[in-house]
Amino acid sequence: MSRILLIDDDLGLSELLAQLLELEGFELTLAHDGQVGLDLAVEQSFDLILLDVMLPKLNGFEVLRALRTKKQTPVLMLTARGDEIDRVVGLEIGADDYLPKPFNDRELVARIRAIIRRTNVHTDDKTQAVQTFGDLKLDPARQEVHCQDQLIVLTGTEFSLLFELVHHAGELASKEVLSEKVLGKKLMPFDRSLDMHLSNLRKKMPERIDGRPRVKTIRGKGYIWLP
């Protein structure tokens, strides 16, 4: 049974979501302020964290920023509808995805299952060997990446994006396909999630010894991992 931590100060919504997610087969833990939520997230093991932005004591961004220094637990941020700045900031500091409020039950459950599924897709197969791509070594079972003998700490979404790109090196990886495979959702107009995750990935990867870029963006179409 997958364990979910919900950090939200709306008691009524929290209770409704608890009932919904428990009926869907998830084990849910609740926290109603940022500090308690952060403590639980660090001390315990969860498959996913649902994190509201507006929280007492520590806001959602502060919780996420502190969490990412210790753990890479997948995080789905709950943002106010139309608040593009919150979404961009959340993705920049390590959120795996976002869902604007108000949302419908089926969409929430679908997003949760998609994130957990893509996080587990590599780790479930413990027999997968370490794979080498140039100066990169990918360990699918551990979701770890070494580059130039240095461990690169990635979120589950960043690892999945890198995995897809390097396995199709030299080919155009369309945004539509990557959105389905990496984010578990159809690409929507003006959705910058993939761009933000790729930006984070670029920042974390060391430069190649020969100075060549690792990935090329084809505007409006997708990305090419350069072998």
From TrEMBL:
The modified positions for 4-aspartylphosphate read D52
Where is it located? Cytoplasm
Q: Where is the Response regulatory domain?
A: 3-116
- Write the record's keywords in alphabetical order, separated by commas: Cytoplasm, DNA-binding, Phosphoprotein, Transcription, Transcription regulation, Two-component regulatory system
Tell me where in this chain the OmpR/PhoB-type domain is found: 128-227
Quote the InterPro entries the UniProt record gives: CheY-like_superfamily, OmpR/PhoB-type_DNA-bd, Sig_transdc_resp-reg_C-effctor, Sig_transdc_resp-reg_receiver, WalR-like, WH-like_DNA-bd_sf
A single GO BP term for this record reads: regulation of DNA-templated transcription
Q: Write out the transmembrane intervals.
A: none
Cellular component GO terms, alphabetical:
cytosol; protein-DNA complex
Pfam families registered for this protein in UniProt: Response_reg, Trans_reg_C
**UniProt cross-references to PROSITE patterns, sorted A to Z:** OMPR_PHOB, RESPONSE_REGULATORY
> CDD domains under this entry?
trans_reg_C
Task: Please list the residue ranges the record marks as binding DNA.
Answer: 128-227
From the Swiss-Prot or TrEMBL record, give the protein name.
Response regulator receiver:Transcriptional regulatory protein
Which SUPFAM superfamilies does the record cross-reference, listed alphabetically?
C-terminal effector domain of the bipartite response regulators, CheY-like
Q: Which GO terms describe its molecular function?
A: phosphorelay response regulator activity; transcription cis-regulatory region binding
